[in-house]
Amino acid sequence: MSDCIFCKIAAGEIPAEKVYEDDQVVGFRDLNPQAPVHVLLIPRRHITTLNDLTEADEALVGHLFRVAARIAADEGLAERGYRTVMNCNAEGGQTVFHIHLHLLGGRQMTWPPG
Ligand code: 5GP
Ligand code: ZN
């Protein structure tokens, strides 16, 4: 999608501190980190919200989570623990409308989330 900031990051058209890339997904550090480690994992293909996923995307979403776990391990978080979050629409707190899995870690997470 031409005016989507995360499509532009995936395409390398705007800069981001990328920590992972393959043919399906890209991982990069959040511009406004909410924890010592805050990485966003996105599919290269534009998908607006969690509501727009189809059965054909199930492998892609599984891959997003497996990559998140791999990055968490690389960042030394596997045993300590970490959190993965995907926000959906207004009440979910979504502000960028290209799906992204947040990987947060390096501090104690609290529950319930804000
Ligand atoms: P959401 O609120 O949609 O779940 O998360 C969007 C996230 O994207 C926020 O944590 C925000 O800091 C991050 N973000 C927004 N714009 C940019 C950007 O241009 N670059 C990077 N690296 N992160 C961004
Ligand atoms: Zn997009």
Polypeptide structure, described:
The chain is of the alpha+beta class. It has one domain (5-105): HIT-like (HIT family, subunit A). The protein is 24% helix and 22% strand. It contains three helices and five strands, in the order αβββαβαβ. The chain has helices at residues 5-10, 58-74, 89-92, and strands at residues 18-21, 25-29, 37-43, 82-85, 101-105. The protein has a five-stranded antiparallel beta sheet with strand order 1-2-3-5-4, covered by helices on one side. It is globular, with a radius of gyration of 14 Å. The termini are far apart. The mean pLDDT is 97. Zinc ion binds at residues 1, 4, 6-7, 46, 98. Zinc ion is lined by residues 1, 4, 6-7, 46, 98.
Concise structural overview:
The protein is α+β, with helices and mostly antiparallel strands and 114 residues long.
Give structural attributes.
114 residues; five-stranded antiparallel beta sheet; binds zinc ion; globular; alpha+beta
Helical residue percent band = 10-25%
- Shape label: globular
- Assigned CATH architecture: 2-Layer Sandwich
Q: What is the CATH first-level class name? A: Alpha Beta
- What's the N-to-C terminus distance? 30 Å
As residue ranges, the low-confidence spans are none
**Any idea how many domains?**
1
Number of helical regions: 3
CATH superfamily: HIT-like
Bound small molecules, by name, code or SMILES, are: guanosine-5'-monophosphate, zinc ion
Look at the helices and sheets and give the structural class: alpha+beta
